Putative mannose-6-phosphate isomerase YvyI
Amino acid sequence: MNAYPLTFHPVLKQTIWGGRRLGTQLGKPIGADSNYAESWDIVDHGADQSVVADGPLAGKTLAEVIASNRKWLLGDVDVKGIDSKGSGRFPLLFKYLDCNRVLSVQVHPDDRYAAQMSQPDLGKTEAWYVVAADPGSLIYAGLKSDVNKATLREAVQAGQTEQALHSFQPQVGDIVFIPAGTVHALGAGLVIAEIQQSSDTTFRLFDWNRVDEQGNSRPLHISKSLDVTDYASGPVMPRRPDEEVAGWQTMVQSDKFVMQLMTKGVDTLGGDGKFHIVTVPRGRVTLEFAGETQTLGAGTTMLLPAASSTCKVAVPSPDSVVMASHLPD
């Protein structure tokens, strides 16, 4: 089968902290509702499945594409290493988030811990690109340098978890790397592009003392959170690409994924035997593939199969950016 970029229908998630910017800013099909919090653009995790939107594979889930065209899509990835149960699911998950309210303070386990849970999963290392940030918005990323397990427990029990957290006011274009074990929370007023391991394992450490209309708070996972937290890593600082550099810049190089950004110029992608997740958080870019040129608008996400030949990617304007993610060597 000839290789070509795959586009998918997104899996949309509604919660009380969602808004409308997934539709108005990123073109997601949210309709008239105003509480859409997440758009899972590339996902193969249980019942949550991306469905191919067009082309010869239209209507197939990502899991079905892997089952019938594994090497074409994944290349030489060791599929037994993707899933703790050896089922070979797609190893990464890409999503957009619209945060109208501050999210709960969370921490994710690593692969070893997650594999031992009653419902085994992958661990969850993730990275964020800040698409939009209202004035005064905050990101909480990592613990203050003097916080240990005992002081964090004390802060949580006193309802003062925020005092133990490192925070900063993000700018559009910031990249934040959140390895497994990093305590974190996204503040209100943010739109985020997130690449992560294909996992939905989250331990909630603190929920800002919120209660619902019946006076009930959401469940917390304090003991598990304290157990999996990395107390040595300290505060997490944002990263930014060099505005003078044309072509791809590697912003995150980890053992789970590589995240690249391009903010100007022309470069190539693919033709290396790896799959690549390509998305446009802001503006528009052009993709030239097999002699055809396609313009991708904000919020567009594609999956370039491992069997693809090299394509040319161009960023035509200074208010545009393209993000690409793949597995490390």
